[in-house]
Amino acid sequence: MHLWKTALAVLAGGCISLISLTAAAQQVTWTAGFVNAVGSSYVDTVKTVPARIQAATNGRLKLELYDTLVAGPEQPAAVRDGRLDSSFAVSPWLSAEAPYMNFGHLPGLLTDVAVYHKMLDLLLREEMAKVWKSRYKSVQLMTGVFEEQCVISRTPIRAASDFHGKKVRVHNTEAAALMNKVGAAPTPVPFGEIVPALQRGIVDIVMTSVGTANGFGFHTVAKHVGLWKIGTVVPWSLVVNETVWEKLPADLKPLVLAEFRKIENEHFARHDSFNVENIENFKKNGMTVYVAPPEERAKVFAKQNVDAVFENWYSLNDRAGTDGRGLVKKIEALKSKM
Fold this sequence. Notes:
Elements: H1 2-26, E1 28-33, H2 41-46, H3 49-56, E2 61-66, H4 75-81, E3 86-90, H5 113-136, E4 138-145, E5 149-153, E6 167-169, H6 173-181, E7 185-186, H7 194-199, E8 205-209, H8 210-215, E9 224-227, E10 235-241, H9 242-247, H10 253-269, H11 271-284, E11 288-291, H12 294-300, H13 303-320, H14 324-337
Parallel strand pairs: 1-2, 1-3, 6-7, 6-8, 9-11
Antiparallel strand pairs: 3-10, 4-10, 5-8, 5-9
Helix pairs in contact: 3-10, 5-14, 6-13
């Protein structure tokens, strides 16, 4: 009897070990790069993802977030090359290689994030996915947008003419083209240096999102915030190397996709309230918030200025081999039906 019990115990232990080994073999870990834009809705969303995905997959998929492993502008290429498994990639940095992705920056094309959200499944998700696949050998699992864009300055920017002669830190090629047309001088500044750049006068104006402006503590160096509706839709996407995605167990893929869609929808649902919270925080921190009136915005977005931005974007797409004009026509046609 004693020998029989011993044999059963050994057998049971072996089974448990086998089950444990099988479970361990099924666990997958992805490295995930992101940009630490403190205070932004982007970071707020990104930070929730590892726990959400781990819970949705019963611990079988783990995402490890890294903001310094690969610099933000280099992350899409790192995913393509296999140096990162995935990235919460920020679209403005793709202007040189994939300008097609920056349609959201085109002045007047998409001016409402809710409309953009509706367009994702109707058109834009597939258009972005094609570029991620062809240029970066990646699969797009989720997308989002930064919150409302603003300009931060040490002296007030109350009229379109106030941009003239100012050095402006912009974060995308389209905003740079627009600033050129109003007589400003777009000035590149590394992301982590934007606050001291404004404080030291390296730039006169910083263009960023309202959440990032609060997160980086701009109120300590400047007191003026302007809401000019420049760059309404500034997208980002979670992309994973296509080989890494293919290796994920087949039964996990629908769970992962479903959870990412939930996270995405929650991100968009919070967009408006996030903007309101951060604009109120500006005021609490002693900043003056100026909402540019329609007549002054109309001067910034005058036809000759807007046309120049579009033509520059079309040229970038022509050189990259993508049909920018065709995409704009598709977006305009879809807008007319909504």
